[in-house]
Amino acid sequence: MNKPGTLYLCATPIGNMEDMTYRAVRVLSEVAAIAAEDTRHTRKLLSHYAVHTPLVSYHEHNKDQRGPELINRLLGGESLAVVSDAGLPGISDPGSELVKLAVEAGITVSPIPGPTAALSAIVCSGLDTRMFLFAGFLPKTTKKRRERIKELTDIPYTLVLYESPHRFVDTLERLLTAFGDRPAVAGRELTKKFEQFHRGTLQSLCDHFRTTAPRGEFTLIVAGSQGASVTRESLASQDPIEAVAALVDRGIAKKEAIRMVASEQGRSRRDVYQLVLNQEKE
After folding, report:
1. 165-203, pLDDT tens digit by residue?
2. pLDDT at position 230, please?
3. How far is CA 46 from CA 4, 28, 138, 255, in A?
4. d(C-alpha 230, C-alpha 252), whole Å
5. What is the largest CA-CA distance in the chain?
6. Residue ranges, the chain, pLDDT below 70
7. Rounded distance, CA 117 to CA 19, Å?
8. Helices (H), ranges, the chain
9. Order of strands, sheet of 80-83, starting from the edge strand that comes earlier in the sequence
10. Residue of 246, 240, 239, 242 whose CA lies nearest to 223
């Protein structure tokens, strides 16, 4: 009997083609076949790196049929790679189903690490990264979206979510209603030429994207529950030093906290900064 092959989970760029690793190119060149969500999309990537390995379609709509076929090839001794359209496969895509089948069959599964939108966004967010929860995409139906958001409301850890542009404002509004006005950061076009991070709170993001149409796939980072929520009313009525401290405690950068308090209280940023600085000196 042949020794089973290895299933490689191969990360691919989330935007910038230069983020492909040497190891990923080598593995993709050496395996018997590559299972891809969108073979047309992956073929462009392989062409860029002069990789000529055969492609096999593997996606949400054919995974039940194609998965066992790929497992049989692995059991027959072939090593295969699985890729998603972008990032590390197995996160919010059907690659996770293939991994389950491989593990159940006693097949070795090996990661070829690389870029992921979730980690790229959270490390640049300025929010607390010590403990966080990856929530992926919220369900599409209204009822299930409401239920999932309710489950996340009291989570004390920073939340990481993915969202498409046409549902992004709806998601922000639902989170604002359920959570209150927490610190939040929206990352879009990550690693690409027009990469942007919009930092503030759920309310300020709502205000911005209601007038500026969201474009591209978004990664949304939201501060975890800290008991009482940060609202515009509380920022406007609190002592400015206390308001800044409350925002910093919730993971938002001091510079951004000063800007938010100054805006809500009708003060200049210089004045709020000076008040905070004097307090720190004391």
Report:
1. 999 999 999 999 889 899 999 999 999 999 999 999 999
2. 59
3. 25, 8, 31, 43
4. 11
5. 76
6. 1, 227-234, 249-252
7. 12
8. 22-30, 39-48, 63-75, 95-104, 117-125, 142-152, 165-179, 202-211, 232-237, 240-249, 254-265, 269-281
9. 55-57, 33-36, 80-83, 6-10, 108-112
10. 246
Structure tokens at 27: 């593995």
Distance CA 20, CA 43 (A): 14
What pTM, to 2 d.p., does this model score?
0.77
Q: Bridge partners of 220?
A: 161, 186
Rounded Cα distance between 73 and 69, Å, is: 6
CA pair distance 272, 224, nearest whole angstrom:
26
Residue in the block written with tokens 């209204």:
142
> Among all chains, which residue has been given the structure tokens 């690793």?
21
What's residue 282's pLDDT?
74
The first and second tokens of residue 68, run together, are 């066992």
Which domains are seen in the chain, by residue range?
Answer: 6-115 (3.40.1010.10), 118-222 (3.30.950.10), 232-281 (no CATH)
- Amino acid 150 reads K
Distance, in Å, from the CA atom of 20 to the CA atom of 276, rounded to the nearest integer, reads 44
